[in-house]
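Input.
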Amino acid sequence: MYLQKLITNYAAYNQWCNESLVQWMSGKPETDFYKQVASSYPSMALTLNHILAVQEFWYSVITQNPPVSMRYMEKNPNHKEILQELPQQSSMLTAYISGLSEADLLQEIHLDTPWVKGVLPRYEFIQHVFNHSTYHRGQAVSIGRMLGYEDAPMTDYNFYNMVALKRGVEV
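Output.
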């Protein structure tokens, strides 16, 4: 029961963070979305597209459905599409995870990709999704700083648990 509660909370946290990031970037000029900076993905558009593409991929792994998106190959992603679809996909991920039982989370998933092959419990792949997104959200905030923005949202996990939930922030 504890694993299910923890993973479900992390899913809600991931969704809240992605929605906070999208809300922050929605108020910025579209041109800034594509400005080149020194980062692993050289623009805000490519960074957020990467978060979304990888989240879609791992969703297909944890639901055991073949991936349908080729988003990761986008060289010039549409910023409005990303800002709309990242929160939607995060919500879909949260809804799916919220319906999983402890046994579902412990179920072993076989992964066979060109990059890595192996077997892990479903919750390990889910946890990877959250860690991956957190890593790249940090890069997005850094990109925002390079663009001159100092108003990035606070998205720390403890802030979410201790402050955001207590203030009634919707997740």
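The domain at 2-164 is CATH 1.20.120.450 (Four Helix Bundle (Hemerythrin (Met), subunit A)).
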